[in-house]
Amino acid sequence: MERRRRTEILINGNKNVAATLAQQILAKYEVKTIEKPNNGLVMVKVRETAKNSLFYLGEVFVTECKVEISGYIGFGILKGHEPELAYHLAVVDAAYNAQLPETERWNEVLLKEEAAIHEQRKNSFMKILKTKVNFETMDV
Amino acid sequence: MGYVAVKGGTIAIEESIKRLKYERLKKGVVLDIGRIEAGLRGLIDQVMSESSLYDETLAALAIKHAEGNLEEAVFLLRAYRSTLPRKHYSQIVNTKDMSIERRISASFKDIPGGQILGATTDYTHRLLDFDLMEETDEDAVNWLSAYEKEMLDEVDEKHFGKLPKVSDYLRKEGLFSECVMDNTEPDDVTRKSLTFPSTRSQRLQVLTRGQTGAVTSLAYAVIRGYGSLHPTVGELRVGYLPVYIDSPFHSFNREDDAYYIGEIKATEVEMLIPETVEIGDGKKEIKFEIGYGLCFGQNETKAIAMGILDNSLEKGNRDYPTGDEEFVLYHIDSVESTGFISHLKLPHYVTFQSKLDIVRKSKSKQEM
């Protein structure tokens, strides 16, 4: 699974998923920490829709971490102070970059979690849709 | 009187700081950060927006530290932000990707996707709810449980929280001019000081991190007569924007190689401003312009005000102070304005004494 999609699932989903996948790698391979989880900023660049130009909206506080497995670097980054999850994301990323055989079996877990996120978001949006205005035209 | 250098006050300052802590703790009750995050959403959003730093927990901590003093909380966060490295820039965030929680238009009744009120105080009676005096955590859990059980209508999977922009719909009708994509790298006022004439990216950045009250007051002045705009809210949306960064290890990145870092809550507003334009042969027609507002959190009044000031500054009519970019942009930043005004209470003994000396000298000359 591509990185964009799997990081969405691992960050939006249950934190245990990233922990479980990372644990499979940590139990079997030597994982070297290059950069311990630490805090920093990501500047958000946006496109405004009046003139279609770009500007900086502000910065997001993040935690990031770098690890290495067999010469392959893994990078974990997410919003907020989340050192444990950042580390697990980095381990999972390194496992994919190193094309470790374990990653071939992860699709099923990730797709299941993605479906759960989808269901939860759908329910949440359905709640929001209850606030949709149903206009009635009056006879004057 | 000559210049006299003085020192001292260290013990008094230490005791003053202790006194500040006493004021925060004197009732023997400590505010829990989680409770601030859970219950002070409006304040947190305002602090994040004005400090230009997105993190609910840090904002809650700043609010606790500052005892709810907004300008102090913003100052604390700005100061903390300056200690952190900026490690990455996001990919371009497109607000069409916003997961909508609220979306309305004051200009058009029928908009694609409909008017979704979401969570708003717009239609509430402003009657103080005294029942909240007795509200407990258990009450909250019970209410949430009942809310979860309410029946839901099936939703069209196609939309699923992402709705088309009202302005796109109007552009198709030819009511707006088409704008080509402008990919000019934005300026960053936190790295390079604002200069005049300002660029559009500088203006929008200063407006989005502006003090809510200042931005709102100046926009109000535009409508009241110290400006020439008659705007309407074309679209206001509140929701979550996904943020991605490119891989820091590759110079060329495929879209699927991006790292997702999470979502940020934001308010976006497109103000519709009618403008009479010459179309030749002495004929005129009315076209619409957009004033643009976007800020962290659910800060609707500020986003609307930002849209009004954006258009006012784009026009740059110096007949009005609100068309003067130097007047607007130099005075709406919370830390700059509150910092300058509040510094006036710090010792100015030498400055004031020198002024006093001048007055005394001129008086004694007059008496001679």
What does this structure look like?
- Chain B: Keywords: Lyase.
- The complex is a heterodimer of chains A (140) and B (368).
- Chain A has 140 residues and is of the alpha+beta class.
- Chain A has one domain.
- Chain A has 4 helices and 3 strands; from the N terminus they run ααβββαα.
- A 3-stranded antiparallel β-sheet of chain A has the order 1-2-3.
- The longest helix of chain A is centred in the last third of the chain and has 24 residues.
- Chain A is extended.
- The termini of chain A are far apart.
- Chain B is an alpha+beta fold.
- Chain B has 2 domains: 72 residues, no CATH class; 193 residues, no CATH class.
- Chain B has 13 helices and 7 strands.
- Chain B has a 4-stranded antiparallel β-sheet.
- In chain B, strand 6 and strand 7 form a beta hairpin.
- Chain B starts with 9 loop residues before the first helix and ends with a helix.
- Chains A and B meet through helix 1, strand 1, strand 2, strand 3 and helix 4 of A and strand 1, helix 4, strand 2, strand 3 and strand 4 of B.
List keywords for this structure.
heterodimer, A: 140 residues, 44% helix, B: 368 residues, alpha+beta, 2 domains, 4-stranded antiparallel beta sheet, 13 helices
Short overview:
The complex is a heterodimer of chains A (140) and B (368). Chain A has four helices and three strands, in the order ααβββαα.
β-strand amount of chain B:
15-25%
Name the average pLDDT of chain A. 95
Show the largest interface.
Answer: A-B, 53 and 90 residues
Query: How far apart, in Å, are the first and last alpha carbons of chain A?
Result: 59 Å
Estimate the strand proportion of chain A: 25-35%
- The amount of helix of chain A comes to 40-55%
Sheet/helix structural class of chain B: alpha+beta
- Would you list the SSEs of chain B in sequence order as H and E? HHHEHHEEEHHHHEEEHHHH
Subunit organisation of the chains: heterodimer
Backbone shape of chain A = extended
Average pLDDT of chain B: 91
Count of DSSP H/I helices of chain B: 13
Protein name (chain B): Carbon-phosphorus lyase
InterPro entries (chain B): PhnI
GO biological process, one term (chain B): organic phosphonate metabolic process
GO molecular function (chain B): lyase activity
